Amino acid sequence: MAFKIPAAGEPVPRGYAELLDQLDRTVHQLDARFRIPLLGVRFGWDPIIGMIPIAGDIAALILALRIVERARELGADKALVHRMLVNVAVDAAIGLIPIAGTLLDIALRANLRNLQLLTDEIRRQRSPSAH
């Protein structure tokens, strides 16, 4: 089901809030599930999956594209989707570099960046000054 971002003062549909919460949980599993003690560096399943040559990179790409698809369902406009797809493309290209790509993937965390872009846009549109 496709939604539009609710404007300031509009009630948030139950399905909208549930989809956003599900997206948040998925993104955190992919990019911030684990923490390296002492360093405080967080990473998730995305770089782990990406360590599997070719198949892992394809799987990580599919998961990242699914997140962008969910953002569209939540009302992301074409400009926002384009920015998110650029993050996905950079992440996918970096992921192809053996070993260094995994480390860069941990640093980039494109899925978290994309979630932040979406939530920033939701906050902006729900702000009373936005309309």
> How would a crystallographer describe the biggest sheet?
2 strands, antiparallel
Provide the residue-averaged pLDDT: 94
Report, as a whole number of angstroms, the end-to-end distance.
Answer: 25 Å
Strand order of the largest sheet: 1-2
Query: Tally the helices: what do you get?
Result: 6
Shape: elongated
Measured on Cα atoms, how large is the radius of gyration? 16 Å
How would you spell out the order of helices and strands? HEEHHHHH
What is the helical fraction, as a range of percent? 55-70%
Structural class, by secondary structure, is mainly alpha
Number of strands: 2
Low-confidence stretches: none
Quote the beta fraction. under 5%
How is the secondary structure organized here?
Elements: H1 14-31, E1 34-36, E2 41-43, H2 45-50, H3 55-73, H4 78-95, H5 100-108, H6 110-126
Antiparallel strand pairs: 1-2
Helix pairs in contact: 1-6, 3-4, 3-6, 4-5, 4-6
How would you sum up this structure, described in words?
- It is a single chain.
- It contains six helices and two strands; from the N terminus they run H-E-E-H-H-H-H-H.
- It has helices at residues 14-31, 45-50, 55-73, 78-95, 100-108, 110-126, and strands spanning 34-36, 41-43.
- The longest helix is centred in the middle third of the chain and has 19 residues, at 55-73.
- The chain is elongated.
